[in-house]
Specification:
CATH architecture: 3-Layer(aba) Sandwich
CATH topology: Rossmann fold
Mean pLDDT: 92
Order of helices and strands: EHEEEHEEHEHEHHEH
Largest sheet: 5 strands, parallel
Radius of gyration: 16 Å
Strand content: 15-25%
CATH superfamily: P-loop containing nucleotide triphosphate hydrolases
Helix content: 40-55%
Structural class: alpha/beta
Number of helices: 7
Shape: globular
Bound molecules: guanosine-5'-monophosphate
Number of strands: 9
Length: 191
Amino acid sequence: MSSKNGKLIVFSAPSGSGKTTLVRYLLAQDIPFGFSISATSRLPRGAEQDGVDYYFLTEAAFREKIAQNAFLEYEEVYSGNFYGTLRTEVERLWASAKHVLFDIDVVGGLNIKQQFPEECLALFVQPPSLEELEKRLRGRGTDSEETIQQRLAKAKEELAYAPQFDRVIVNDNLETAQQEVRKAIEQFLQS
Ligand code: 5GP
């Protein structure tokens, strides 16, 4: 895979830390970004649409793609739920002269950084505290208590990876975080 001039911008963070809001903000800026739509074997949540939020695959279809080496990276993020980045997705965005934005988990994010050390900027979005994270997850109102507990346990593990990222953005005040992210990316794209 060759990037020509396209770069890779990875956003990783515990779910509920606000990274999806930051990604949406960036996609609305005048920088040619394309969002990497991940594949997943989990079921759609709320109003999520196939081919927009994720490519929703059955577990069997997901495993078949693993066997075909179709993923740049993939993981069983929660037990029984696979998530991964298809090579074809990144190639599609690079072919249309876009920089690729990823909203993926910390291990997947670091995996991409390792494969593309020069072309990739890896950002970690950190929630102000675990208490605030729990509040946000409950406020979303879409997940069961079991799912919330699973996500909180995973968040604790994920916070330990923050130092391995190029930049840590603490999402306390959304506007400040947006400015910080935009500046970091502009600097990286100019370098
Ligand atoms: P959710 O179920 O809340 O949409 O996502 C669960 C977790 O999977 C999040 O931490 C999200 O960042 C991560 N995730 C989404 N897509 C990918 C992917 O393509 N690869 C990896 N490794 N993780 C992903």
